[in-house]
Design brief:
Elements: H1 4-11, H2 27-31, H3 62-66, H4 84-87, E1 89-95, E2 101-107, H5 116-128, E3 129-134, E4 156-160, E5 166-170
Parallel strand pairs: 2-3
Antiparallel strand pairs: 1-2, 3-5, 4-5
Helix pairs in contact: 1-5
The structure holds iron/sulfur cluster (2 copies).
Amino acid sequence: MPLSRKVLRWLFAPDPQPGRQCGGCVACCTTMRIADLEPPKPRCQHCPHEAQGCAIYPTRPNTCRMFECLWLSGRIGGDDRRRPDQLGLIFTIAQGSAGLEFLRVLEAWPGAGETARARYILDRLAQQLCFVFKRWDDPQSDTPRHELRGLGRENFTIWDTPTGFRVAQKVPGVY
Ligand code: SF4
Ligand code: SF4
């Protein structure tokens, strides 16, 4: 059994968790660039429509309609303490080259990745997976925190998670 399966089961839900709702979380609203909002909203800035949710929910742009973080889709295990506005980390799947998908973790506010809980999760992930960590203060770049160096087909294998998406698993000894 690949070692990463233990990590994946620890973070990712074996079965999608039902009934998740954004509730008062607007973490992605702030973090993401919303190009089809008028005027377009840059990354890492509050959206003018943020309230206790979205103030224009019925008419929100397509970018907002289409986005679903892995917590909302029920693929992050655990309780509400892992909701992005509480944990400070937004887990997403991003498209890489050649159709590969990879895990991307966004900081939900400046320094969110430096709390003890966030660091614990990020460090455990980094022991096993290649993933992109996007710092709040790095809005223009996909620079990964741990894994860019040597990230290439020769340095990772693709692993199917229990809930269906695929992530890059680090080849032991590369880093
Ligand atoms: S980060 Fe996830 S839970 Fe929070 S508002 Fe966005 S989709 Fe909903
Ligand atoms: S329009 Fe609504 S859903 Fe979209 S970013 Fe703004 S607050 Fe969030």
